[in-house]
Predict the structure.
Amino acid sequence: MIKVEIDTHSGFCFGVRKAIEAADRMLSNGNDVYCVGDIVHNDAEAERLRKLGMNIISYNNIEEIKEGTVLFRAHGEPPASYRLITNAGLKLQDETCPVVLKLQDRIKKAYKQLKEINGQLVIFGKRGHAEVIGLEGQCEGNAIVIENEAEIDLIDFNRPVEIFSQTTKDPKHLKRIVELIESRKEESITWHNTTCKQVTGRVPKLKAFAKQHDVIIFVGGKKSSNAKVLFAACCDVNTKSYFVSEASDVMEEWFVGAKSSVGVCGATSTPLWQMEEVAQRISSLL
Ligand code: SF4
């Protein structure tokens, strides 16, 4: 009989768990809760909270809210968002992850120093991602965001450079980008691997888990940067790794040839209940 095992190290990181628990608590107390954008990059979990009464809004709708509490999710926000809530007279539940808050603070201080020497603050991250928008907001909108090697030409190589990474980025990719910049610049640059330890710490554990099973089913949201990084780690060690966003995505033919076990794992934004649903579906197909 083929065993189906859920990875005990997968699922919400403490930053996401803290934000979700706050949302659940506020909703169960009957509060009107508004969240700007999805609370987590996992459609199924966002939908669960929406059904409990969570309102998903955009900044353009804030002025229409007469009363209630706006929840800032773990990704963090730029200073302009705080001003918007204050000016609208709304209550704020700030659930920005402490790791992101610390990174925002580091970037703010670095930007201040770089300004004095005509330097450039570079963020290695996904343009338009909520966390990156929050980080750019610490630099009066003057940070240079690069997503890949091809974009390093956005940097002026004759001026000082300091780089930080979005908390979910692959540190190896950051290092390759730093080496490429240094090959084009006379002096070395200042750079910081600011990928969250909740992400990097999971990679070796996830690889060990993925190696133990014939087939790996990775559960994650399509918009989740963290899911992409962790799924790539599974693929590195197990070619029979598949990405799903819901239980119905699982295909029976993936298990042809499986001998002893199937592993189910997920991202820092994947709820345990969803991995359990996927595990049940797999069991029904085996
Ligand atoms: S991955 Fe790290 S930075 Fe991001 S929410 Fe989780 S604990 Fe915070």
